[in-house]
Protein 1
Amino acid sequence: MSIVVENLTKTYGQQNAVNDISFQVNTGEILGFLGPNGAGKTTTMKIITCFMAPTKGDVRVNNFSIHDNPEEIKKKIGYLPENNPLYYDMNVIDYLEFVGELQGISKAKIQDKIVEMIHVCGLNIEKHKKIGELSKGYRQRVGLAQAMINDPEILILDEPTTGLDPNQIIEIRKLIRHLGKEKTVILSTHILPEVEATCDRILIINEGKIVADGTPETLRKQAQGNEMLRVQFADYGSRDSVISLLQSLDTVLMVDPVLNEDGTFLIQSREGKSSRRSIFQLCVQKNWVMTEMTPIETKLEDIFRELTTN
Amino acid sequence: MNKIWIIAVRELKSFFDSLTAYILIVVFLALSGFFTWISGSDIFFIGQATLQPFFSVAYWTLFFFIPALTMRMLAEENKSGTIELLLTKAVTDWQVILGKFLACLMLIGIALLLTLPYYISVWAMGPIDHGAVWCGYLGLILMSMTYISIGLFASSITSNQIVAFLLSLFIGVFFLIIFNVLSSDFTGTIGEILSYMSLSTHFDSISRGVVDSKDVIFFLSITVFGLTLAETSLSKRNIVD
């Protein structure tokens, strides 16, 4: 089931929360939605789930438009909103039953579904308690359970792992990955390793615009630029001579000694070149001992920072 | 219809899960019982087998109780954000509004059912005009529908329950008293309009046992109007925010 977002714009007063964004998500894809606070992630999700109408543009879910067939779309979407609002005065089972009925699960199946969700989300011990009495992590699980109860083809999760303990985070990620095989999942998060661990594709938005779109690998390649190496030598002569010798290699663009670490240098290669071989050969030639050579990869954090700060 | 019923049942359960329903019913029965049977101008004072004292008390108590019921209906959902969860389920705004309306009406219905012993007691004491009694109950239900729709509207525009409560009292008091008082100050068309807008005009004639379609239309049209405003205010998130 595909989601097509077309020229979506949402204006609050003077401010554009979402500014003319378009993208498409296909079945079996897990899309990670990244962006600093106030970038427009939540607004976009609220529009896709038919909670809010956009100022301009359209979202089509399996060729149903949010303007014309919100009912059809809402049936197919499981949604976990940002702050996980729940009826605190209801107990877990009643609440799941209520949501299941609203989503049109037949009376015959609903009990099985509730049992399944309680099992999947690890709610067994707490199932008779009122939601208001649960800890934050358990409430989050109830939020996930209600989103998934009717086995929706699309899952939209706004920060699904907040408030969970590390074991639970890993379980939920596993669950999302598992679900993502046959469903379409959009999840937003601030936790960057989470995106790498769960998502097939990353969409970074900033100030209401898409600034990056691609798999974690392609994004990293785009941002990588020149090769960076961290190299450490032992038994070398003077630091200055090492620098000037390295600098004279024709693949090397720049050499920086690392502060407070003797014999450690950061070496940047020229565009499209690699200096690993020539550095090694230089060591052999000069009888230096190389104790470390590490390529420095651009982390997702760096990409994120670069794209979202001005 | 099914969705409306699901929402109504949940709301009704939550009235009974909290103390709201019990307090409302007990206080309602206590107040109306007191004024019907014990206070100075009660049934024994009138010396007729009539439920008229009960209807004129209920006319006032419902005016205060209904806003207390409706105030949390949407205001609380707006505040806690559960409205987002509710409206992103496969329901329409209308189903949400009507479900909540139905829940309030059912609770009022339960409270009124519990006053049937009054009816039976009075009946046992003397010849009672059955038509007038049933019309009185019909009048109370129609009036409750009006107040509930006003209360739902007030609750839909704010996330503060106190504001919702006061606002629905404020709107209600126009229909309850102010139009009536003003209508005597004006003559001609304005006076007639104000008199028509006054709730008491219509309630009095119904509770006397005269069901006129004009009165029923009055109550129903205000109800529909209030619910439409509530629905509009709920869906305004789609336009501005």
Protein 2
Amino acid sequence: MSIQTSEVLGHFGQYGGRFVPEALIAALDELENAHNASKSDPDFQAELAELHRTYTGRPSIITEAKRFAEHAGGARILLKREDLNHTGSHKINNVLGQALLTKKMGKKRIIAETGAGQHGVAAATAAALLGLECVVYMGEEDTRRQSLNVARMKLLGAEVVPVTSGSRTLKDAINEAMRDWVTNVATTHYMLGTVAGPHPFPTMVRDFHKIIGEEAREQVIALTGKLPDAVLACIGGGSNAIGIFHAFIQDTGVRLIGLEAGGDGVETGRHAATITGGSAGVLHGTRSYVLQDANGQTVESHSISAGLDYPGVGPEHAYLHDIGRAEYRAINDDAAMAAFALLCRTEGIIPAIETAHALAGALVIGNELGPDATLLINLSGRGDKDVQTAAQYFGIPL
Amino acid sequence: MSTPLDAVFQKVRSENRAALIAYIPAGFPSQSGCAKAITALAAAGVDAIEIGYPYSDPVMDGPTIQEAAEISIKGGTNAADVFSALKTASTAGVAAVVMTYWNPIEKYGVDAFAKSILDNGGSGVITPDLTIEESGRWLEATTKHGINPIYVVAPSTADARLAQVVAKTGGFVYAASVMGVTGARNDVSVDASALVSRVKKATDLPVSVGLGVSTREQAKQVAAYADGVIVGSAFIKLLLNAKSEQEGLDAITALAKELALGVREGR
């Protein structure tokens, strides 16, 4: 039996949909139509493929992490190197697609939210490349944690607006971006950075990232002669995870494992593990799992990783969890940082702290599955942006 | 079904004027201060009151209502406080509705929320982020309990869509006067009258205009073409800026009296 993977009228089971002000419906319809048209438009697909080949640096390679694998029960560990993409993460896949759609829709201005700054940098990059005006909303707290990325965005010509409302993190940056969009929707495209938000964003952003899994599936088979036993990725909103999972969903023998940010530990309440520690609800225009209190107010999330520090998650992940096709586990800050350090020293690769959650998951799953197993891990981003956080964590004087 | 809100619009229609509708979040400026503000607004001549159920992520609201919502949430406002404010308003003799984002309703229980509205004398609920596509369970509940499901339409809402939305609406249609978030503005744009006339082509329901009205003159202008004039941020700003609770109550009373004159001068 094939697993229902694409949405039905914007829904994944009971999740997804549109919970937005009526003012945005026309723009969401326009975007949905543009996205649907682009899927069967050979010119659009050729233009995007050419950009990926000559600008992003696709296909991204697979690296076998043999020394790291010694710590993972001897399982074979294959890293899908999205960190080698231009701008240093998977985020470029989505922004180039959305920037091309923006031009198709005749809009000249994009807005974006960012947590760690990776999506903001990617959005600013795409805007520079295609001549679009770009405004990035970023929680004031995050502008401090990720000041290097703020400077990168400014160098790329974007305006960065620090958001001072609420918890001053990613969730509030999304609120502010949506307020901007409600006001300027006629001229502006909201370049949402993850597989959350109102329909069509969860589907569209997935479609722009599914190239990760499509490439990796072929690469793993070419290298090993078979499918991997498990595919692992970190989960904040869930874009890199859905990107690598999607091509494997019908391969029911392949375990799909998402690693959420456990912060200080799910049991402490200070975490960002939305599926592991949250409940069904509505946030930012979509029904999914949400970290919320008894009154339905969103609870602040906590993670050492700014990019995973979000109290929601994409609706397709909520659905894959509920039907049992994917598993979700929480990785605490300390375990993520240990895996971060291990990859640096065993493979000479400094990963993003977000990605380190998936690596920590590999250490656990590898030991569970043993030396005959092959694990494919989405190395979603590089860690240059995290050097300051990591140096602080490990007590390296700067 | 007929709610106190329906009766208000029948009354103002017979008086050939627009209704004055005030918005205040539950628990703002405090639980007791909110009850006093509701009573003061009712005494000053507002016809209906919207009780806000503050939500942590209010994407339709500008800085003024965000600030009030934060104060209210920090004060621990929950659904019981919202229903209590509703009861205060209906006891004071004005029609009362709740305005809230969807997640607090879903978390409380969709049917139970609608029932509690009725049980506390409320007429309906304004749901600014609930699309008609996601409204199945909600409309079952509002029908069952005989309360008004009030939807918001915007200048960007196309005619075909408008017809679908107003077909689900009860009480009145909430016309957002401009593309944007809540907050007082110098001009209630020309979009508003154009939107109201488009809505009126699609339905016989009353149409109320919100977003941006803060003065008697603006109330008069809007009352010329709309059945209701909604004022929120202007009252909240007065309460936020007041040096004492009494000063705030006096200020909103004075503004409400001015606005009540405005809605009677439009035609």
